[in-house]
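Researcher: Next entry in the queue.
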Amino acid sequence: MRRKIPSTAALSAFESAARHQSFTKAADELALTQSAVCRQIGALEEFLGVKLFRRSRRGVLLTDAGATYSRQVTARLDEVERDTLDLMAKGGQGGVLELGVVPTFATKWLMPRLALFARAHPDITVNLSARTRPFLFDETRFDAAIHAGAAAWPGTEGVFLMRENLVAVCRPELIAPRTTIATSGWQKYTLLQQSTRPYGWRDWFASRGMQVDGDMAGPRYELYSMAAEAALQGMGVALIPRLLVEDELRRGALIQVARHDYLSDRNYYLIYPEHNADNAALGVFRAWMEEQAREYREPLGLGLVSP
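Model: Structure for this entry, 307 residues:
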C-alpha cells in the first residue's frame, strides 16, 4: 500500500518556514522564491487537511497543530540528515550505532575504553546520548542502551554486563588523620544522597549489620557524577559504584572509608529491541562489551561474587 507521506520538498519548506516564522527567510535559505515556498506549504496543508500557519500583522505564525507538527517533522528530518551523512562518510561500509547510556557510566567507564573499540573496528561509529531511565525504542533512534536496573525491560533482549558494587568514599582531608570511619563515627559526617536511590545508604548500612540515625538525610544528587564531585570538594561521604571512581581512588583524590563492598540489587545491562538482535554492528559491539566487562564479573576478593 502506498505510504501517506507528503513530499520531502513540502516538508523541507514547512520546516524552514516554521523555524524562521517567515516564508521569505525560508525562501532565502532554500534558494527558492517566496511564492514557491507558499505553494509548497499550501500543498502540504491541502494534503493534511489542516491549517499550519495563520497570518498576522507581523507575518505568519504557526497554529497549535502547526507547532506540534513542526517539532515532529524537524526531528524526523534531523534523523534523515544524520543517516545520510553517516552513509556518505562510510561509503556504505561498516555501520553506525546509536546508544542511550547512563551518563556517569558512559563518562567514567565506557569512554576511557571506547578508543580501543574504535581502533579495533574503525568501520563502526558509536554515537552516545544520555538516558537515565527506561524508554520505548520505537519512539527513539536508539539501536541499544546501557541501563542500570534490576532487569531488562519488556520487549527487549539484555546482555548482563556486571553487578553494581557500591563503596563509601570521601576526600581524605574530610576524615584526616583517620583513613576509615569507625562504626560509631558515621553521624559526624554528611551523607551525600542519590535521588534515584533514596534507600541507598540504609541498604548499605544494613548489609554491614548497622543502623545509623539520619541515614536518609543530606544533599541529594541525580547523577553519580554529581555525588562524586561533591565528595571531591569535601562536602561529605558518597556511596558510589567502584567502577565510576576507580581513577580517583587510584590517585588518592578519594579514599574508601570502610573496607566493605556491597553488591546492590542493580545490574548493568546492554539492552536492545528484539528486532535488532541480528544487527551486525551491534553484534560486534555486544561481544566487545562483554569482554570489557569480564573482569568486573570476577570475585571481588571479599567473599562477594556476581551471579
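Model: Confidence is low (pLDDT under 50) at residues 299-307.
Researcher: Noted, moving on.
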